[in-house]
Amino acid sequence: MSNDMFLLMIDDIQIINAEERDLKVTLFEANKYVPVNKESTINYEVVNNGSNVINSFSFLWSEGQNTYNQNVNGVTLKVGDKYSGSLKFTPTQAKLYDLSFEVQDINGSIDQKIDNNLGDQKLVVVSKEISAK
Q: What is the pTM of this model?
């Protein structure tokens, strides 16, 4: 009990030794079903779980056949800050695509906690779009 007569309760406190560079993937998603030859948006979100400010990072993403590298520069992600972005992908075949996303190269150095750097999703590409009646 505090001396100002208010009851203070604290619960679920964790003290951790955070890595200097730790960028965690918290979201990687697209529409589950996409028509062939129609541009699809893939959304992603990362959060700075490390103790250092992040000013740049890169990531690899793949649709299961080709791998693409993209850089994000000029950001200022303090501890707990999130960064959201999107990718564009136009599937050329009606099939199941295995999308994957991996964060790497934080401020020009490696991520010190690699078990939270990945995102993946299945994308079903259909031969034609049928509108609801």
A: 0.82
